[in-house]
UniProtKB/TrEMBL annotation:
Gene3D superfamilies: Creatinase/methionine aminopeptidase superfamily, Creatinase/prolidase N-terminal domain. GO terms for biological process: proteolysis. It catalyses: Release of any N-terminal amino acid, including proline, that is linked to proline, even from a dipeptide or tripeptide. It holds the Pfam family Peptidase_M24. The keyword Metal-binding applies. This is Xaa-Pro aminopeptidase. It comes from Streptomyces luteogriseus.
C-alpha cells in the first residue's frame, strides 16, 4: 500500500495536509508543486441522469417535511472510521441519509431548511479535490489516492438536490436559529455544532419517524430486495458446488465463496456471513467461521447479498454436507420446516406481527413434547416459554436497508403492530441442541437447524422472495445432487 506525499509549506489559510511521520519524501519542491497544478484534462461529467430512486427519495423527503414543519432537519451520512493506523474501514453511509438522498458518500449531510409551508433540501458534500493546493495528490483522501469524487454540480444532477460544500456547514449550523433536529451517532462534528440547539428527546423523535417510514416498502425497494435475494440464491448455489473444498479447508472457504458473489453482483454482504458447520450451528451468530466442515454433519448457512443501494437479503438454509440427511437430522429439519410453513401462512395483511412467531413456536413446542424432550401439555410449555431452551430466538424481523430494519420504530408500530402490504420480513424458526445439553439424548447434541426466507406482505397474502431456494428436505437433497453432479 503506497504512502502519500506532503507539501513543505501549506497555505496558512488552509488546514495543513497531514504528513506521515515516517514518509520517505520530506517535502515537495516548488517546481513539482507547480508542475502538478496544470496539464490535466477537464473531466466534468455533463450527461448524467438522476439515480433510479430519485423520485422515491424526493417523496420520502416530502413526507419528512410534512411531519416536522418549521424545523431545520439535519441528517448526516457519517465519517470514515479508522481500522488500523491510517487505513479506514469500508464506508457505509447511515441508512437514514441514504434512504432520503440515494447518496452514499462519507461526510455528506442532508439539511432540510424550513421554507414557507415546507422545506428546501440541500445536500452538503466534499467537492472535487483541489488541484491548486495539491490536495488531489498529497492528501490521503485525495482523488489520486482514493478515486474521483463527484463535483457539486454533478451531485445536484444525480440526486435531484442542490449541493453545497460540506466544509462550510458546521459554521453555518453554529449560527443557525430556530428549532433543529439531528440524527445522532454518525457525525460528531455536526453534532458539536448543534450541541446547544438540540435535545435528545426531539432528536429521537426524528430517528423513530425515519425508522417507521421504512416499515412499508415502495416499488423501488421491493425490486431491490428481490435483486438482493436473487443474488443470494446464486451465492448459495456457489457454496454447494464447492463443499468438497470446504471440507478440505474450513468454514472460511464457504464464507469466501459467498462473499465473492456478493462483491461481484452487489455492494457487499448485508451482514457477517454465518457459515456454521456441525455444532457451530447451535451458536446463533457464529461468524468466526474457522471450524471444520465434516461429511455427515449439517451446515447452517445464514447469508445475504447487499445491493449497491444497500438493500439486503437474509436467507438461511441448513444443508447436509454430504448431500443426504440422516434420519435424526431429517426429523429435526422437517420439524423446523413445518414450523416455518405455519409461520409463513400467518403472514398476511391485517394479521398481527406476532402471529407468525406464535404459529411457528407452537409447532416447535408440539414437536418437543412429542419427542419427550419437555413435559406437556403444549399450552403449558408456551405459557412458560419452556421451548425457548431449544428455539432461543424470535421467528423473524423486518428487512430492508438494515438486515434488522426499522429497529428504532415504536413497539406499537412494529412488534405490537399489524402487517400491511409492502412490509418485508423474515420467517426463520430454528431448533438448536447444544453440544453440552444433558437434558436431551446424546444423538441430538450438536445439531442445529434454521430455515429462513424473506417474505413480502401482499394485498392478498404474501410472496416468498427467496422461493427459488428449495426448503423441503427431499427437495434440498435433490437440489444439492443436481449442483454437485
Amino acid at each position: 500500500m503506497a504512502e502519500e506525499l506532503i507539501p513543505e509549506t501549506p497555505d496558512e489559510s488552509e488546514e495543513p495536509i497531514k504528513q506521515r511521520k515516517n514518509g520517505l519524501y520530506p517535502g515537495v519542491s516548488d517546481e513539482l508543486a507547480e508542475n502538478m497544478k496544470s496539464g490535466w484534462a477537464d473531466t466534468e461529467l455533463r450527461d448524467l441522469e438522476p439515480v433510479p430512486q430519485a423520485a422515491e427519495t424526493a417523496a420520502r423527503r416530502a413526507a419528512l417535511s410534512a411531519r416536522f414543519p418549521g424545523e431545520r432537519l439535519v441528517i448526516p451520512a457519517g465519517n470514515l472510521k479508522t481500522r488500523s493506523n491510517d487505513t479506514e474501514y469500508a464506508f457505509r453511509a447511515s441508512v437514514e441519509y441514504a434512504y432520503l438522498t440515494g447518496n452514499q458518500t462519507e461526510d455528506g449531510v442532508l439539511v432540510l431548511e424550513p421554507q414557507g409551508e415546507g422545506h428546501e433540501a440541500t445536500i452538503y458534500l466534499l467537492p472535487r479535490s483541489d488541484r491548486e493546493n495539491g490536495e488531489f495528490w498529497l492528501d490521503g483522501q485525495g482523488e489520486l489516492w482514493v478515486g474521483r469524487r463527484h463535483s457539486l454540480t454533478e451531485a445536484g444532477t444525480l440526486y435531484g438536490i442542490p449541493a453545497s460544500d460540506v466544509r462550510e456547514l458546521a459554521g453555518a449550523l453554529r449560527e443557525a436559529t430556530g428549532p433543529v433536529r439531528v440524527v445522532r451517532g454518525y457525525d460528531a462534528g455536526i453534532e458539536a455544532a448543534l450541541t446547544d440547539k438540540v435535545t435528545a428527546e426531539r432528536d429521537e423523535e426524528l430517528r423513530v419517524f425515519l425508522s417507521e417510514a421504512r416499515l412499508v416498502k415502495d416499488d423501488f425497494e421491493i425490486g431491490e430486495l428481490q435483486k438482493a435475494v436473487d443474488s443470494t440464491v446464486r451465492g448459495f448455489e456457489d457454496v454447494v458446488k464447492v463443499l468438497d473444498k470446504a471440507e478440505a479447508t474450513s468454514e472460511r472457504y464457504i464464507e469466501g465463496t459467498f462473499f465473492l458473489r456478493a462483491r461481484v453482483e452487489g455492494n457487499d454482504v448485508g451482514y457477517g456471513t454465518i457459515a456454521a458447520a456441525g455444532p457451530h450451528a447451535c451458536t446463533l451468530h457464529w461468524v468466526r467461521n474457522d471450524g471444520a466442515v465434516r461429511s455427515g454433519e449439517l451446515l447452517l448457512l445464514d447469508a445475504g447479498v447487499e445491493t449497491h443501494t444497500y438493500y439486503t437479503a437474509d436467507v438461511t438454509r441448513t444443508l447436509p454436507i454430504n448431500g443426504r440427511f440422516s434420519d435424526l437430522q431429517r426429523k429435526i429439519y422437517d420439524a423446523v420446516y413445518e414450523a416455518q410453513e405455519a409461520g409463513i401462512a400467518a403472514v398476511k395483511p391485517g394479521a398481527k406481527y406476532r402471529d407468525f412467531h406464535d404459529a411457528a413456536q407452537r409447532v416447535l413446542a408440539e414437536k418437543l413434547v412429542e419427542w419427550g424432550l419437555v413435559e406437556g401439555p403444549v399450552e403449558r410449555v408456551l405459557e412458560l416459554g419452556l421451548q425457548r431452551r431449544w428455539t432461543l430466538h424470535g421467528t423473524g424481523h423486518m428487512l430492508g436497508m438494515d438486515v434488522h430494519d426499522c429497529a428504532a420504530a415504536r413497539v406499537e408500530a412494529y412488534v405490537d403492530g399489524v402487517l400491511e402490504p409492502g412490509m418485508c420480513l423474515t420467517v426463520e424458526p430454528g431448533l438448536y441442541f447444544q453440544a453440552d445439553d444433558l437434558t436431551v439424548p446424546e444423538e441430538y447434541r450438536g445439531v442445529g437447524v434454521r430455515i429462513e426466507d424473506d417474505i413480502l406482505v401482499t394485498e392478498d397474502g404474501n410472496r416468498n422472495l427467496s422461493a427459488a431456494l428449495p426448503r423441503r428436505s427431499d427437495e434440498v437433497e435433490a437440489w444439492m445432487a443436481s449442483l454437485k453432479g
